[in-house]
Amino acid sequence: MQFTSDNAAAVHPAVWKAMMAADAADAPYDGDRLSRHLDETFSALFGRECAVLWVATGTAANCLALSALVAPHGAVVCHREAHIEMDEAGAPGFYLHGAKLLLADGDDAKVTPRTLAAVVDPIRDDVHQVQPHAISITQASEYGCVYRPEEVAAIAAFARGRGLGFHMDGARFANAVAHLGCSASEAAGDIDALSFGFVKNGGLGAEAIVFFDGEAAKAVRYRRKRAGHLQSKGRFLAAQILAMIEGDLWLENARVANAAAAVLAAAAPERLLHPVEANEVFFACTAAEREALRAQGFAFYDWGADAARLVTAWDARDEHVSALSRALAGL
Amino acid sequence: MQFTSDNAAAVHPAVWKAMMAADAADAPYDGDRLSRHLDETFSALFGRECAVLWVATGTAANCLALSALVAPHGAVVCHREAHIEMDEAGAPGFYLHGAKLLLADGDDAKVTPRTLAAVVDPIRDDVHQVQPHAISITQASEYGCVYRPEEVAAIAAFARGRGLGFHMDGARFANAVAHLGCSASEAAGDIDALSFGFVKNGGLGAEAIVFFDGEAAKAVRYRRKRAGHLQSKGRFLAAQILAMIEGDLWLENARVANAAAAVLAAAAPERLLHPVEANEVFFACTAAEREALRAQGFAFYDWGADAARLVTAWDARDEHVSALSRALAGL
Amino acid sequence: MQFTSDNAAAVHPAVWKAMMAADAADAPYDGDRLSRHLDETFSALFGRECAVLWVATGTAANCLALSALVAPHGAVVCHREAHIEMDEAGAPGFYLHGAKLLLADGDDAKVTPRTLAAVVDPIRDDVHQVQPHAISITQASEYGCVYRPEEVAAIAAFARGRGLGFHMDGARFANAVAHLGCSASEAAGDIDALSFGFVKNGGLGAEAIVFFDGEAAKAVRYRRKRAGHLQSKGRFLAAQILAMIEGDLWLENARVANAAAAVLAAAAPERLLHPVEANEVFFACTAAEREALRAQGFAFYDWGADAARLVTAWDARDEHVSALSRALAGL
Amino acid sequence: MQFTSDNAAAVHPAVWKAMMAADAADAPYDGDRLSRHLDETFSALFGRECAVLWVATGTAANCLALSALVAPHGAVVCHREAHIEMDEAGAPGFYLHGAKLLLADGDDAKVTPRTLAAVVDPIRDDVHQVQPHAISITQASEYGCVYRPEEVAAIAAFARGRGLGFHMDGARFANAVAHLGCSASEAAGDIDALSFGFVKNGGLGAEAIVFFDGEAAKAVRYRRKRAGHLQSKGRFLAAQILAMIEGDLWLENARVANAAAAVLAAAAPERLLHPVEANEVFFACTAAEREALRAQGFAFYDWGADAARLVTAWDARDEHVSALSRALAGL
Prior knowledge:
The structure is a homotetramer.
Chain A: H1 13-21, H2 38-46, E1 51-55, H3 58-67, E2 74-79, H4 83-86, H5 91-95, E3 100-104, H6 113-120, E4 131-138, H7 149-162, E5 165-170, H8 173-180, H9 184-188, E6 193-196, E7 207-211, H10 214-226, H11 235-245, H12 249-267, E8 280-284, H13 287-295, E9 301-302, E10 307-311, H14 318-329
Helix pairs in contact in A: 1-11, 3-10, 8-12, 12-14
């Protein structure tokens, strides 16, 4: 029973269906009928003009988005637990040509204007010091916590006040929106670019980079090709994304995953290390307890010596969730 | 009737089937059962130890392979019509951190030891001059021509003699092998790394980087992730590749494409600009003739003012090929 | 008797004097009194607002200047004999993060709107092709030839019409101005940035990057430090440059060098491969003739099998020039 | 009375003399008589084979040295107060093509095997995590403290055990050796490369990169030119360095600076924030106290809100040092 990650879950049947429907040859790269429909689809979803590029992975989405906001001699300010810092093998350094990540603190892997200021304000406008060019936050955060619209707004105001770009890593943006019960636009707020994830939510290999500033998107079209991310059969990536947006499948899938996490959280509320707002559950446990769970057939990651991480996905099976819930309660 | 490119052709049914069979969640990235089978499969195919990494595109395959052979202060020697020079948006400059491409001549987009020497030999061992670190050739070439094993061997000898790495861009390696009627190993010769293409030959979005030196592959595993090319549902890329290798589907598909090109070539032999050895036909024609062909429903690329390019794929339909053949003969 | 290069000539006494006068400790980097005087000095010289940064070498000057005009995914168009292409060890690839050099033709190592168009115009606005972002020309050219103001103006018009930046490598700008007998401003024309060379003209290790667009200079101040080119005792670089500008020493020195080259050119006019307009003489000669000259004590570079290059400097000694002139005439 | 930094102090008369003696034209770049003497000079000094390259700045020295030890996908482990992290404008990111700096703790800006292990050991051999490739320490440290030979040896053993390269930033290496009273070789220990600083110790603009592995130096010769750091009149850099080594001027100058710092330290021992072992004094003081000192004519840097930094140089004047000593005692 898999609770290791949502990143290797099955592909949703509607995604398969849309991909196969796209089989007939069309124009290569992003010249096909489906890819050309993305801007319109997301503009409708967000209620404002969007320029949208597909790529296969979240790392590529994050780094290409940031490449529009950060010069090689600049820096991105992000949480010290941010995916771009911890899990992308230095990809920002590659895509941004050596730009730095400056690390901010904050509970639940969420930054605040205060923790951002603690990083940004001591930096003198002095050529010896790397200057911040943009802020990147993760919605939902790496600890499965969600920025509320007013929190995003406060960070956006901070960014504007300091002349910084503002990017959102939305690998689990769907889970955040499902939790907030608001619109996609309200959950994103006044950002410049969003990495809108689908792979963890029922897709196969397609994420959307959503630019709310069309000018920024232009250079990234060149950079995407230059990074080897312009697939020639791009219609299959567009098909996945459109299938997820259509009929709000992205929200429906996220709700399933979030609900499963809530069930698990409810089983051992006193053990939770972070509020469970999306589809991740971090809970305190001993090595012996982890062993006991694994002996019952549950797969998951250790989180240091005294904790573990459970992740639920769109394809969570009720009986698995119930079984794990009981096991947690019984620890 | 599409003769524009093989890069947007349909996906072969066996590939779809293999992908869907891989749907059940497995370990993420390349830890799944299928990805872990790649080294063995290719080692069997080539009759020597291989280390194999999947990526989604030929550009990523070429550039990651070259990153194992070329330092940032070095250069790749390639034909001046090479895909890495002409069509990859400067991706080698990105992946190799500013290394140069040094351009060699040669008929049919094929280099020879003589044309390579004309580039390499005038370079003094002087820090002011960028030094060559590797050679890259394309099999089949950008003009649809195939290096014979003895030609590859001569280039390999040149590379060894000069202390240079040797990479082969095999976006249409299958077409080359089908033409030669030899083994994969004979067609590849003594190279260090091969970009083995599947997308143009019935795949959806998966190419194999085949290293014949396991040490070189090690750093590239890090570089692949760093470039955002390590897909979390990598099992679907491995599935495509294994489906293509199984039962020699790769060869079967390439034979179909090559045969269709041969039919077209035979229709207007006096117009051919290059020998037709793979699945591309370059032929002289006027703008009026191109217009006439398009009026009959044929899609293809112009090739400068006085020529055109036709590309056939694994899904070439006999009636389309026959129709175009008649149209060419009737020009 | 040295005619190898002007790049290793002695340092002018006025430069030494200015350096020693700057010995007393002042603010580090470019915060000292002399460095802060550069903008004003060059603004007066060019008759328009300048922002000026010192660096130690022409390669750093060229590449930092270009970094303000060219994005990593773009290209510089330059002559195929340009110093940035031939002699800088791939420095543009390093500083521009993999941007390409696109090579144009032209007599005497000079490009023209026609030869530039031959490179630029075939490039489609297609993400597969590297797009030009700037033009770089060398004044005087690598063959010792000088762009006349109307030639620069025509290239500037071409650049503006295509939306391209325009950089001038002025390693021998002084020699060009001395030849033209015009103002510095007329010789530079409507460029965005100039690498104004002093090392070949009596300096020790200081060149000026002159930006005619202050905004562009801002980022380059960060990039200069990031490249390790912000010397802490920068006052000694500023001192060199100011000493060269003061009393038009730069022009005086260049006139001496140019005059010496003219004497040599006059000795064998029928052998000249290029007009001798600055301080370089390229002349046809056999290996035996070169040997004969060297036997008489003259040092210089071969230029391929059938030619040689002579370079004169500000410290050319009349008796050496006369001796070589006689020897050339006597070949 | 300047106590701001040693980086803008005057140039030692012996250095001026050596530079002027090098004025006569010699071979350009590092082909001159003096540059060719460096390997031998340093091999004698360190009692083992060295390959030595000059550059103008410590930032260039550090980053070029590290470029021989760290691949673009790797990382350097250094103290979180290290100059390469704090004061070089992201230069390591530029020179190492996006490699990361991983930050270790330690008193007095010195790392230990324990603090290094705290950074290195949690890193799994997993492609998602940036792997350490080298360690860099600063001798003397950024807080003016000196690694004793046994401390360097322990770090070297740690590096060897983990397969990591080992670099020493010796911007104030002379001050460290002067403090230790040992040989240069003992103070450097078993490192791969040393940035041996001269600019802060009486030089004008020349530092030595000393490689104890000749193979590593080879690629760096290309990289130095590619970074625009190969000055054409390199003889003037070699002259500075040789003048400093000759007769142990480097040690003599460092002793003067260290002695001055010791005088200052003795004036207010209870205020010291770090042991004063080289030529830097960090001491606790209020804003009012700093103001009082400045009112008496002393220039220095604040160090946060509650401290200040004093730096002494080879040209420290006794009367200034005495005056400041009295002022400190009288606070």
